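Run log, item B.
One chain of 424 residues. Sequence copied directly from the ordering sheet:
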Amino acid sequence: MIARLGITDFAKATIREVKQVAATAEKESGVQFIKMEMGIPGLPASQVGVDAQIAALQKGIAHSYPDIQGLPELKQQASRFVKAFINADISPEGCVPVCGSMQGTFAAFLTCSQTDPAKDTVLFIDPGFPVQKMQLQVMGVRYETFDVYDYRGERLGPKLESYLSKGNICAIVYSNPNNPAWICLTDDELRSIGQLATRYDCIVMEDLAYFAMDFRKDLSQPFQPPYQPSVAHYTDNYILLISGSKAFSYAGERIGVACIGDKLFHRHYDALAQRYEGLPFGLVYSTRMLYALSSGTSHSAQYAMAAMMAAASDGTYRFRDDIRIYGERARRLKDIFLRHNFHIVYDHDLGQPIADGFYFTIGYPGMTSGELARELMYYGVSAICLITTGSQQEGLRVCTSFIEDHQYDQLDERMRLFAENNPR
């Protein structure tokens, strides 16, 4: 199957290619694969959202184009949600619905890269989501990247400044919790990012796809600390990308909200003003970029997102209770891999053991990422290489979302055989 698909180096195989090998081999062999390559929610969609979306459709909302700025109720509830779980103040005006964070980042990359002709490069704090770099490739925007593995804590600021001081960085991008390492940037690290973004006048794009999923802390109480850490407390130059896909298991409806800080939303950049009839940043983002991309976001899905955010902020929908199972799966999977000579690549978070969550990373002694990914295929286990995420470490990303209860024993047996056939 690998030869038929022409994959010569698994280290560079995309998520879709790995998925295709696993799915086709499973179908032709009749042997179930343990699929860990795709970051797709493995839980039912939030019933709160489903009920609200059905009700909106039954009222006939499907016949109407949505406002490009977004459903007023969703904008209000997004602003309230940010206050409830981040303790940051963002006006409803700056909370703009998007077709998932994927579209939100695409529109943000377009807007940020046009703010200043001298700032033509995006900086990634990696590892990260591979498709974001593909988005920049599609639009012809340059990017730079560094692996945060060796630059945590006090070392992060100087490393960032070594890039920002060149004067060509328009935006900084990272996910928190991190895909795939699951490290969680601390308030001190976020303060460094925010202060440097202000000093060098660049925009921080904070990808919160895995919102409040650091299960080491109780981030579930609205309007009470501890809150989801965010750069919003340390700079005015930020866009928060909040997705319905993972926290609410609402991936299929492609719904998210881009929350643009008030000062950034109303800021006028000369280059944007010349190109877009004097509009400020926030209106360029919505009435130009998003309008050109899709004419708005699914109308009925906006009702779903508004209802889920409202119920979460009210405390009647404890979304973290639904998704905690990802942490339990990660703990059990890590135990199996560690028992059979694997190691966790990104294993600590500034002195603390890494949190258990949606992703974690594994390596095996004496094997490169590509070698390990290919070899595991022969044991019915599929995962992607860390190199595709911008990591400089040898290893694989493991996603916990599709693991079924009967597969723990399967994985244990397969990894026992793997260890026997690949002695350290």
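Observations after the first pass:
- Residues 299-314 form the longest helix (16 residues).
- DSSP finds 16 helices and 15 strands in the chain.
Flagged for discussion on Thursday.
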